[in-house]
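Run folding on both entries below.
>entry_1
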Amino acid sequence: MSEAVDPVAEATQRLEAAVERLTRAAASRPAAPAGGEGDSTPPGVDPAAVAALAARLDETIARLRGVLGEEG
């Protein structure tokens, strides 16, 4: 007989794993030059895509907090 999986625990684990992957990816990126002038966006970075991803993550975290009964 298989055990029932808690969907909130599963979502929490998936979110934590995603954050860990993002942490590793960020750590492996070369550092941006310090004190650079002009455009502050690193080459190859789409600011709109980053903003959209950040918004999705914020919404996901807010929903998870709501399910867990935590205040943001």
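>entry_2
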Amino acid sequence: MMYNKIIIAVFALFIGLTFSCEDEYVDTVEPSPVVGADVPGLAFSNENTTSFELDPAQNPSITLTVTRNNASGSVDAPVVVVENTENSFEVPSTVSFASGADTATLVIPVKEGAPTATPLTLKLKFEEAYVNPYTENYPVYVGELTLIKWDKYADGTYNSAFFETSWDQELLRQEGSNIYRLKDVFAPGVHYEFEWEEGAVEVTPLPGVQLSGYDHATYGPVTTTTSANPEATNYDAETSTFSFLRKWTVSAGSFGELVDTYVITELAE
């Protein structure tokens, strides 16, 4: 009997707490924001580039497209800087739309003396009074820029075992470092880099795994894995030849490991 009384007491306490919580709960509905007829609805285009690499000696700048969904009248809207690494970017205070225009261009120069070889972050936004929360684009932009100067190190010939062909190829060197670049090797905008102390045998791929930029007609994007083993990826001073052992893979599997070579034919002056 005592056991049953304890159970009944606990159950009663549970019921009391449940109804007490229900009494305290108030179901409220927050109304959706109302956008005024005169709100321009500013946003940064989704097509804007968010990652840049520029030469500090070439008057670097980035260009962003700003959109608005209300094109009536002209607008000068303030640009709010949320983050600007070491104040490296000279951000205009406003962006201007001509009457009837639904896009505007925001050109942002990089200041002279901005840090090199390190990522510089830029984050911008627009004030709420200029924003329509229902547009597909975003009123916030976040981008990253790295300033790197590449100097020509040599001319040479690249021999691709995978593509079974050869072509002329420049070898670039990052200023002030032992990092080298084979630019646009297999596809535009896709570079292969490695670290190498001039004359040494050891060659370190940077990174070891990357997309090649080549899409196979049947299997899609092709990834390469370049070996860091000095017996396979190395430099031969006698023949001025770099060798790169690469494994070529797709989602369905691997094409196997093949050795590409790059032969220096003439050093840059």
